[in-house]
Amino acid sequence: MRVMASFACSDSDIPDAEILYQLKPGGNPNDQKAGAETWCSAFAPDNSYFAWSCGHRLVRLVPWKHKINNNEIEENEGRQGEHPLPTPKEKVIDCGEYVWAVAFGSSVSSKSHRTINISFHRFNFGKDLILATGLQSGRIKTWDVSSGGILLYLIDHKEVIRDLQFAPDGSMFLASASRDRTLKVWDLNDDGNMKKTLKGHNGWVFSCSWSPDAKILASVGQNKTVILWDMSDYSMMRKLTGHHNDVVACDFSPDGALLATGSYDTRVILWDPYTGQRIRTFGHLFPSPSRIFSGGANDFWVRHISFSHDGCHIATLCDDKYVRFWSIYNEEVPVKKAQLVNALCCNYSPDGCCLATGTRDGNVVFYMAPMRVQQLQHLCRLSVRRVLPSTKVDALPIPQKIKGYLKYEN
């Protein structure tokens, strides 16, 4: 009988990630009972707030920038003759029902059509930070972060909202993924009107992710499904096949050249979203399990993933009680690890310095993320791939080896 292990080497050979900070809900007598789970968390794009669903209908907003800059604020308060900077306060939002998804959104004030459009809108674009919450009933509530007041109810889904993602281009388009087998796109720029319903999944939709230019939406769900959508006309681009179990998480690289998907089959796969080619596979069980074993209850389900903002690392959560930090160049051994029981979700901070991980008991643990000074060739690749898809890279009059590097093949 083969002995299965979490790593291809001894776990003592892999450095441990340092814990930076912990958040606990506190004061709730039901913390250890069902309903306390942190199923979702999110950082504001400007790093001003961190939001987490700490169970029992509540979402907490922590002034994250204040916490990480606390020494600077103390210095400002001690200066004579100057008014001390106001200290932002933690906010608690009661959503009225169980919260499964949260997302921050803000518009890009520099867009020209914003300045010439004089029609009425509910939001002060460029200044207001919006929080969207996905609920048990299938409803979505949006909130003004500064006041904590509710802005809009978005009602059309029939089942639980499993994920929410704002388009990264500042258009205020919100994508929602639901157990009702659909995704919906909402235009908060148009007072929350629904733009389109995307149908193609034959089971629950667990997660979705926008490409950095907001031209592609990826969605994953039950029955091994990974779908890419062309958001210019809301059509299905392609389905990606390769997982052996439900696919529960997805995330694009910062240049949009790679899509990472995490599955209950113990694996994370890196794809080229433009060609459907599999680039790399990161296993969480060694030796690699059979298709039958990985397709069942194997105790090594990958729960969540997050792409780092430097484009060189992927963080993964697995049911074997480990958080892993992978280099995209090494499929065999993670660069760092940490033990964490019952982890459910993870997110990199906008500055890429830390990873937030939520757990079943409602807590959030922040780890120091591995970082390094990037090589110039990698920075050049990021710049090129932000504007050129793989199909256009193939047409460049450059050596084949450089094309392979630009496409992350070598």
Keywords:
7 helices, 410 residues, four-stranded antiparallel sheet, mainly beta, globular
Number of strands: 28
Derived structural class: mainly beta
Question: How helix-rich are the residues, as a percent range?
Answer: 10-25%
Strand residue content: 35-45%
Number of helices: 7
Distance between the termini: 36 Å
Radius of gyration: 21 Å
Order the strands across the largest sheet as they lie in space.
1-28-27-26
| Overall pLDDT level | 87
Task: Tell me about this structure.
This protein is mostly beta strands and 410 residues long. Helix content is 10%, strand content 38%. The chain is built from 7 helices and 28 strands. The chain has a 4-stranded antiparallel sheet with strand order 1-28-27-26, with no helix packed on it. The chain has a 4-stranded antiparallel sheet with strand order 2-3-4-5, with no helix packed on it. The chain is globular and about 55 Å long. The chain starts with 18 loop residues before the first strand and ends with a helix. Residues 71-85 and 109-121 have low confidence and may be disordered.
Quick structural gist:
By secondary structure, this protein is mainly β. 10% of the residues lie in helices and 38% in strands.
Lay out the secondary structure.
Layout: E1 19-23, E2 41-43, E3 50-55, E4 58-62, H1 64-68, H2 70-77, E5 91-94, E6 99-105, H3 112-116, E7 130-135, E8 140-144, E9 150-154, E10 161-166, E11 173-178, E12 182-187, E13 193-199, E14 205-210, E15 216-221, E16 225-230, E17 235-239, E18 247-252, E19 259-263, E20 267-271, E21 278-283, H4 291-294, E22 302-307, E23 313-318, E24 322-327, E25 336-339, E26 343-348, E27 354-359, E28 364-368, H5 376-385, H6 390-393, H7 400-406
